[in-house]
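Worked example
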Amino acid sequence: MPPPPPTVADAIHLAAAGRIAEAIPILQHLAGRGDPEALFTLGDVFWRGVGVAPDLPRGRALFKMASDAGNAAAVRGYTNLLANGVAGERNWAEALRRLAAEAQVDARRAQMRDLIAAMELTPEGDPAVVARGEMLSLRPHVTLFRAAFTSAECDFLILVAEPTYEPSRIVDEYRDAGAEYREVQAELRTSDGSTLHALIEDPATQALTRRLAALSRTAPEQGEPLQILRYRPGQEYRPHHDWLNDPNPRVQTALVYLNDDYAGGETAFVRTGLKVRGRCGDVLVFRSEGPDGGLDPLSEHAGLPVTAGIKYLASRWIRAGRHML
C-alpha cells in the first residue's frame, strides 16, 4: 500500500528538526487544498520568517484565509491585525464586530469587549478625552498622568502577559555595518518580560496603546510593541538610556504602573535625583531626546530593585517616526 499523504503534523515535525525546506512544500500543498491548520501554519512561517525571508503581508493574507476556513487561532489573530493595522488595512469597526462574535464563545474575548465598552473612544478607537499631566521635570522632560488607566485595565494587561514571560533583554548596539540589532540578556536588566507583538495585541490592548500615543502626543504607529514587565524581589533595571542610535531613534518612553502593592522599585533619574513611584494606573512619560535632537544624557534612569512583593509595569518605547509596519 502507498504511504499515507503527509500531514501538517509531519510538516511541523520536519520544521522542528531544521528541515524547513521539506516542510514548506507540504504546507503549501495542504494550504492549496484549503486546510485551515496548514493555512495558519504557513502564515506563521512567513510572518516570523521561519526558514524564509519574513513576509508580513503574505503571512497576514494567509491568516485571513485560515480565519475564513475556521481556524480558531487565525480568527483571533486576524481580528487583532484588523484592530492594529499591521501589514495591511486597519479597520477598527470590523475588528469590534468580529470581537463581539468571538466573545459569544470565548470568555477572554468577552473581557476585552467589555473593557472596550467602558472606554470613551472615537469611532477609530482613539481616546475621546486625553488626560492632563503633571510635569515633574523640564529636563529631562518628565510628565506624570495620574490614574490614566483603570485598575481593571491594569489587571487585564497583567493577565494577558502571564503565559509568555521570558527573561528581559537589552539591545546590543555593537554590530557590524548593515547588521540588524540583536537583543541579548544582561545583568543590567534582570526583570521578566512579555512582548505583546502585533499578532497577539488584541483590540483592548490596541486601544490602550493608542491612549499612550495620545498622552505622549505621538502617532500610534511610532510605538514599539507594548512590553509587560515583572520585577520580583531583587530584580532591577540598572542605570541606562532608552535612546537607540538608529536613523529612527527612540525618543520617548511611556510607563504604566500596573500595581502598587510592592516595596522599592522606584523609577529613578540618576543624574537629577528625581524618583517616581507611581500608583496603580499612573502613566509616566519622559523624553530621551535632548534639545539638540540627540540623546539627552539627563534621561539616564533606573528601575530600582524591588524589595518586597512583585512589581508589574507596562513599557512602550516610542520612535521619532513610524515604526509599525
